[in-house]
What we know:
The complex is a heterodimer. By secondary structure, chain A is mainly beta.
Amino acid sequence: xxxxxxxxxxRNKIFATVIKTCIGALVCLLVLVRSPRSMAETENKPKxxxxxxxVTISTSQASTDSRSKNWKPAPDSLALEVSGMTFLEDARLxxxxxxxxxxxxxxxxxxPPNKVEYHRFASGLHEPLGLLxxxxxxxxxxxxxxxxLFDLDGDDTCDEYQTVxxxxxxxxxxxxxxxxxxxxxxxxxxxxxxxxxxxxxxxxSFALTNKTLGVSQALWRGWGMMLTPDGNLKPMCAGMRxxxxxxxxxxxxxFYSDQQGNWVAAxxxxxxxxxxxxxxxxxxxxxxxxxxxxxPVSEIPDGLPxxxxxxRLPILKPPAVWLPYKKVGQSATDIMVDxxxxxxxxxxxxxxxxxxxQSSINRVYLEKIEGEYQGACFPFRDSFASAVxxxxxGNDGSVFVGLSNRGWSSLGPASYGIQxxxxxxxxxxxxxxxxxxxxxxxxVFTKPVDKHTASDVNSYALTxxxxxxxxxxxxxxxxxxxxxxxxxxxSADAYRVRxxxxxxxxxxxxxxxxxxxxxxxxxxxxxxxxxxxxxxxPKIVR
Amino acid sequence: MRDxxxxxxxxxxxxxxxxxxxxxxxxxxxxxxxDRFYFKSNDHDEFGGLLLLTELNCTxxxxxxxxxxxxxxxxxxxxxxxxxxNWIRDYLTSPSNLKPKGTMPHLLHQVPEKERSDAIxxxxxxxxxxxxLEPGIVASGANPVAHEFWLKGDSERGSKLYHSIGCVACxxxxxxxxxxxxxxxxxxxxxxxxxxxxxELEAMGLVVSxxxxxxxxxxxxxxxxxxxxxxxxxxxxxxxxxGRMPSLKLQPHEAADIAVYLFKRTGESISHVHARSALxxxxxxxxxxxxxxxxxxxxxxxxxCANCHTESSTKPQFxxxxxxxxxxxxxxxxxxxxxxTPRFGLSDGQKNALKASIGSWQKSNTFDDAKGLSFKLLxxxxxxxxxRGGRGGVGPAQGPxxxxxxxxxxxxxxxxxxxxxxxxxxxTKNWIQKILEGNGDVRPYFQARMPVFSEHAKSLAVAFVAxxxxxxxxxxxxxxFLNASKADLExxxxxxxxxxxQCHPMRxxxxxxxxxxxxxxxxxxxxxxxxxxxxxxxxxxxxNTRMPSFFPDGKSSSPHVLDGDVxxxxxxxxxYLNSKDQPLPSKLEQSxxxxxxxxxxxxxxxxxxxxxTNSAGTHAIAVGFREQYHFAFDAQHVRxxxxxxxxxxxAQGTWFDRFAPPAIPLGTDRITLPRSSFKTKNSDGTFxxxxxxxxxxxxxxxxxxxxxxxxxxxxxxxxxxQIKPEFNNGLSRxxxxxxxxxAEKSKIEQVAFVVVSDAVKTNTPGVFTTRSxxxxxxxxxxxxxxxxLDSSELMILIPRLPGSFEVxxxx
Lengths: 542, 811
């Protein structure tokens, strides 16, 4: 042990040293000092969470990476990888999960939701990717069939799994997902069939080949199928790559979303109708089947700007809305119409599109020009805990968001779960609608605008671009052009602004940046960007 | 003994604290390795000064050979669109004012004062005129990139990242950030072992152990935009090719989080940042002012900026080569802070170190492998994280910020970057290379990330192997690792169960709660001799390791395996671990199956899945019974496809494997049944297969016991088909066939049910056996059935009337 005298000596020395050290530390920590100002100023900026609150019902992080070969759910938890959701008559939420089960969740509307109960209704399904309450029972689409789930003896457990539609090609390739069903206004139930990717060995022998085009896929892969109320499954439209989202608007017209990849230049939203072809030529492996409503074609142009490809390939139909890559997501998923008539905020009747990679939801405004849908998309809400795969609206207008990112990657801390998006009752300052006009666009805002900023053409910027229709993955935004905005006229009620701008280009995406506009109370736009797909330029002012 | 340790620690700490006290007043350039190991130290090897020579870029002007390659300066291409012009201006005016302790010397003092401001403007104009430089960030399904992601950072997340992934090994901690929990380092444990009271320790300054001082950072909010800082953090090598700032493999959103955190921590208001970033930094408009830029270029050349900032269009201006510098007398040139040389603000200690090392370098400028390697480790500051030869490692203040993901205490080796002792003997050269390239992460439980170093680190792999080979392990007898007998593989597999898998995963499978390095494919990473020596005595190669010895005193703790032959056991482990096609160790298999093996205990379990084509195929419905008899039904061809006994199925592939592999029966006695269950009779009396369009699966209903009854139609018959175990003695199947209403009216063809296709009639009526020893019994229920055994295909001809029959399968 050290002697006391020595101890005292070194104590003095050390004391002096400590003082010096403190000074030193203070000086070098100067750069670390936080400004108290910064917090307050950050809070002034509008945030999505001020208007739409995320309530977590259940989220979990898997114990492995989302792409791991040995993927495992979080220990001791239900692998709530939500693949479909629908409400039962008794307000329980029915949820299908990717491992092949259907669960009923009670008390999901509680806030905070800490009394949610889970009851397993069905099991043994093969990766069901949708769930729909339909004529008093549940319909789901498994990899190989559409199935109706009955509870015959009333014990709240499924005891009949009735095959209501089957017969599409399944080679065993992992990428051959089957999505749906969703019901349109005429009572048809739609499902969509993913393309296979990299068929191997035996899988190839189950594929059809279209020798003219040199493409090969299993029967009806890349097609949208419709089950009529009398039970016939019909192939309706082709060209889909990864059609993980289906949904009808309030008029009852069915839409699907596709994801960027080979032949799909960017994520897109399309109305489904007989005979349409959207992107991917491999789906045309089935075009020579007698049931095909699409006439065979002899060649597919590769590498043309999309408007030129439309001319060269008459079966090719443009999306109602392109969702520009990164700006409005990276992998579009489910489609949900806000049918709450205002209970979910100011966007009643608009479509919401789920986003996998960025764990967010985007918003779409549609209008019909000369009988065809087109419109604009907008970022809406980000920061969900994981990939947004499914959405369903509750009776109170709030939206239940089903999450699962296995197999791909997403932002956010979780791997799967359910969250709920609740409107706080505050109206965000947003561009609600963008409407095409013969000489520009009409913007409709959610709140009255400040006339000074809104009538200043410098508050806006407009550019247009298109994509390349090509076999390569995705496409850059090409042929970009700046528009000249000549006037910005504010309506008397200050909700609308009429932009006169040119040149407008048919079949181009017109990107608007309205970041200069303020509300009458001086608020900034929550999202200043909108992207309008101008398939048709209206001939008359509307 | 105890007293001795105490003295050592006290003197060490006092010495360091004195150092710290002086530090605040210092403006001398900070070089991490120098500061940590040579600053006020008695360590007088020549490295201290040599390190300054390369890290302060002395050798960029005073050229030496390639062993003293200068660090180099940042890439200035497009700097005008990256950094705020005012910052560049102020920086050139006085580098040390803007970045105290930075390594950039003051150069502009060489320009007469009245011309200086013009010189600075012109240099800024010149630099701004060069093309911009930004990493290409490609968004994809694997790489989420939000639009303008740099504006979407979250400073709280950024702070968490900054304090957990390894930034703080080199850069300043934020005193406000608390590490997740208090962690005892090995040094803490030593101090604790002194057995003193806390106040005693405090009075002696012992709670403050040897600090590692942070590499200074500019006030980033004055220097960058959120965008340019995020981009820098994503790809630091692009701007700093010297590679001293490595890449921490940040996702774009992570870079944005850290960027906004650093802005906030340096006192910036975020809304200001956003406002400014929205406008972006625009390179100063030099169009129409090309004169200024031209003049700037001239200054750039004159001041020898290009010596450090490699600019292809300007020429470097070299000074006297290192070998010719006169360091015999008083300080000269840069060391004398002359008016005509760059001013570094060197301390006297640094000057002396430089002088001494230049002198000794001139006398004998040789590095052996080991020295060359240590020097490289100093230059790249590997010691900030890694210990080697008793030097370096994460500093004591930084230590608690290194954690494993689960925050489980498995010692320092479970959270701190591994020591590099014997690395060249332990890892293969290729694997070291892979690690340096950022692809060799084997500790997924670490929060800290092994960064990616640039080209400069490339030589390290060779250097490690070369320098560690010298004192090689020299196993007493060289083991033939490749030619061990195949029978040993099972022994290796067995040995893994006796201690290895309790901590180590293998091929991604692990026992619950275990944390360790995955042992699969170990031969790609580890050298066989090291493996052998490490297993024999782990602590001899890795002090304080928690890896126990399974061969205490050189004797195996599993004497029953391979007669307890230690070498053979280790060899068999090695062989097993390096064979890809071996089954997992049984404990891992059990653990895996505990989660994913379907074991019917009460009701049957039904799983729709993919199975192999020769089994139930893509439309499989596998049904398992607690009686241990199971079957797979092919819903596409409506046929019983396969039956087996014993264990049922593992569902992991079906439930959770992205690539949806076919489920393969786990049990025994697998028997496949005919490809086609139904045929129709041709007019010539032969039978043909009913194609898919004549078959239609309609689903199944579960009875009270949970046994499914399948419904389907075949030609013009509706069929109900239920298969279940019978008396623990096989499966019994009941088929009920009803001609549809339509069928009764039409004249339907004769339909036959194919029972088996390789049957042999037995002496008992209605009983058949097959080549695979399946015994099939047909029981008639309603009316006599017509059976046909045609070239070993056993068929039942279906009458045109409703009815049923039973088939019993025993095997």
